[in-house]
Amino acid sequence: MTIKVLVAYATKNWSTAEIARTITEVLHKEGLAPDMRLVSEVGDLQAYDAVVLGSPLYENRWHKNARRFLNRNAQALAARPVWLFSSGPLDASASERDIPPVPFVRRALIRVNAREHVTFGGCLEEGAKGRIARMIIKSGKGGDYRDFARIADWTRHIGATLRDEFAVREGT
């Protein structure tokens, strides 16, 4: 059986898209069938066996498109395995310790019965959109703090979990 996984994400400056791309590539290597899409481009979830949903953090909040997606699809998400991720801290803290989810995500974990949430370091570099982003970069606090090895490890865990669960369902 092919396990179809939606890797849905919101993004403003494309760094979260790069995290989603890494997740997609690792899931593919793990033998799953991932489909990477912006949350604004996702319709019905019926075709998917599982979902990985991610968003950048802006002022301690998920991107509005990710919040809308989760609210609009809460019932469908609750019916399948779901993992959530955030990207945002512009320092090494996300690689050094677990960062608790922001309030919306904390509630979403319960609402959709998500398996797990993780916060990865963010990326804000020259050319970023938004007044606040430009101010952060100008102040010297930008940079790329994404830990792609950690992202890949987390994704391999998701792949192994799904393969094990679907093997049990199939009776193999």
Automatic annotation (TrEMBL):
<protein>
    <submittedName>
        <fullName>Flavodoxin</fullName>
    </submittedName>
</protein>
<feature type="domain" description="Flavodoxin-like">
    <location>
        <begin position="5"/>
        <end position="172"/>
    </location>
</feature>
<dbReference type="InterPro" id="IPR052200">
    <property type="entry name" value="Protoporphyrinogen_IX_DH"/>
</dbReference>
<dbReference type="Pfam" id="PF12724">
    <property type="entry name" value="Flavodoxin_5"/>
</dbReference>
<dbReference type="InterPro" id="IPR029039">
    <property type="entry name" value="Flavoprotein-like_sf"/>
</dbReference>
<dbReference type="GO" id="GO:0070819">
    <property type="term" value="F:menaquinone-dependent protoporphyrinogen oxidase activity"/>
</dbReference>
<dbReference type="GO" id="GO:0006783">
    <property type="term" value="P:heme biosynthetic process"/>
</dbReference>
<dbReference type="InterPro" id="IPR008254">
    <property type="entry name" value="Flavodoxin/NO_synth"/>
</dbReference>
<dbReference type="GO" id="GO:0010181">
    <property type="term" value="F:FMN binding"/>
</dbReference>
<dbReference type="InterPro" id="IPR026816">
    <property type="entry name" value="Flavodoxin_dom"/>
</dbReference>
